[in-house]
Specification:
The protein has 407 residues and is α/β, with parallel strands linked by helices. Helix content is 28%, strand content 26%. The protein folds into 2 domains: 18-228, Rossmann fold; 233-405, Ribosomal Protein S5, domain 2 (2-Layer Sandwich), CATH 3.30.230.10. Helix 7 packs across helix 8 (321-333) and helix 8 packs across helix 10. The structure holds thymidine-5'-diphosphate and magnesium ion (MG).
């Protein structure tokens, strides 16, 4: 069978008409952008994210809007219809073409889809759905694969857009959305810090658009609101004029993400100097402090150092070295960095700033989030495309980078 459900045939590529993909737009511009311009009929979109991050909230709001353009069937396997209704009322979501269906059995769900003929189906979540023919437990790899394959078939044959929710699981007890990425058309991740209100929606894979798009939302009492000027959110958390802070453009998988690194350097009062790191590798921090001591003349051996990646993220790539060093130097000298500066670069033992991967994506992200200057490895900068109005300063050594950061 072909992808659109009809019998496949061989065609000359020159004779295939390449029409523009049709799109259904939602009134959430951030979502439309991440999708590549809107929802593609017959496409399958996976929305992954930590439990409690707001996936159901997002899809409930989106469903409410899509119901104005077609029939929506929202299948909930996690909450009762009453629970969802209560939330929908709070969000001001409701429409005649919006159907709720609390069910986990795929046979029943398929039957409903046949009867109702919806244009959009939401499956919340794929981990709660069950194929009666598959003997393994609900949420197991084979279950969620079969469920997804089934839904894919339904999407393609009936030209229904299907959204599936997949919880990201850290302990590996239940299969996560990763194993479904190759099956679906579009993979979006919804992420953010539970202790803060902002949420980022990223396209990790998109057969109908670019993958470096991101949408930023704020979780409010009345649901998710789009954030028009995202840089504000990222900068507002930073204390004006605070020392010991530097922003890094890190990569999470293949995705660039801007994170504030904080350092606190204080004289050791008793015994050996302490080095504590949250979200960063402690040994790496010790090494970077040794490099700062030897190559930038900072007397750090009798100083305690506390390092923290803001927002609780874990960073382990070498490209964050320069930002860690700058944050340490900033605290040590009691001099602030500019809030609109971001740093990238790996540090070598001789104090050289080494090139990093995916520099263009990182610069694009910095630009998108409103940063004005990026201090980056000189070696990275030949022949690359630099975003408009973003100043990129190439540096060869750590000493040079510190000079730029604090002049
Ligand atoms: P939810 O969409 O249920 O998360 P997921 O489906 O990804 O597990 O989001 C739950 C959280 O969102 C919950 O902690 C409460 C918060 N929330 C708000 O802050 N405002 C709102 O209007 C709603 C509906 C939820
Ligand atoms: Mg949910």
């Amino acid at each position: 069978m072909s992808l659109d459900g009809r019998t496949a045939k061989v065609e000359k590529i020159n004779e295939i008409t390449s029409e523009e993909t049709p799109r259904v737009t939602t009134s959430l511009m951030e979502l439309n952008r991440v999708l590549g311009g809107g929802v593609v009929p017959g496409s399958m979109v996976l929305i992954g994210g930590d439990p409690g991050i707001g996936k159901s909230t997002l899809l409930l709001q989106v469903s409410g809007q899509l119901a104005q353009k077609g029939r929506v069937l929202y299948v909930t396997g996690e909450e009762s219809a009453t629970q969802v209704k209560l939330r929908a009322d709070r969000l001001g979501v409701g429409h005649d073409e919006f159907y709720l269906y609390p069910e986990t059995d795929m046979t029943a769900i398929k039957k409903q889809i046949d009867e109702l003929q919806p244009d959009f189906v939401v499956i919340d979540s794929v981990q709660t759905m069950q194929e009666p023919d598959v003997t393994s437990a609900i949420g197991s790899v084979s279950q969620i694969r079969e469920v997804t394959a089934d839904l894919l078939q339904i999407a393609k044959t009936n030209n229904i857009s299907v959204f599936i929710v997949g919880h990201v699981t850290k302990d590996g007890a239940i299969a996560g959305p990763k194993i479904l990425e190759h099956m679906v058309d579009t993979v979006l991740y919804f992420e953010g810090d539970m202790h803060h209100n902002y949420r980022i929606l990223r396209a990790v894979k998109n057969r109908f658009g670019a993958t470096n798009e991101l949408g930023i939302f704020e979780m409010r009492d009345g649901g998710l609101r789009e954030v028009a000027n995202p840089s504000e959110i990222f900068l507002e958390e930073r204390l004006d004029g605070a020392t010991g802070s530097a922003v890094v453009i890190a990569l999470e998988g293949s995705r660039p993400i801007l994170v504030e690194l904080q350092a606190l350097v204080t004289p050791t009062v008793f015994g050996n100097a302490q080095r504590t790191a949250a979200g960063l590798d402690r040994n790496r921090v010790s090494l970077l402090m040794a490099v700062l001591e030897k190559r930038a003349n900072l007397l750090l051996q009798n100083q305690d150092a506390y390092l923290k990646a803001a927002g609780g993220v874990k960073l382990d790539e070498p490209a964050i070295d320069l930002a860690v060093a700058v944050a340490l130097a900033s605290s040590y000298h009691d001099k602030e960095t500019r809030p609109s500066d971001a740093f990238i670069g790996e540090l070598g033992l001789t104090g050289e700033v080494r090139s990093v991967s995916q520099i263009e994506e990182r610069l694009k992200e910095a630009k998108k989030l409103g940063f004005k200057r990026v201090i980056a490895p000189q070696n990275n900068l030949s022949g690359i495309e630099i975003p408009d109005k973003l100043q990129v300063i190439g540096v060869v050594t750590l000493a040079q980078a510190l000079k730029v950061a604090f002049e």
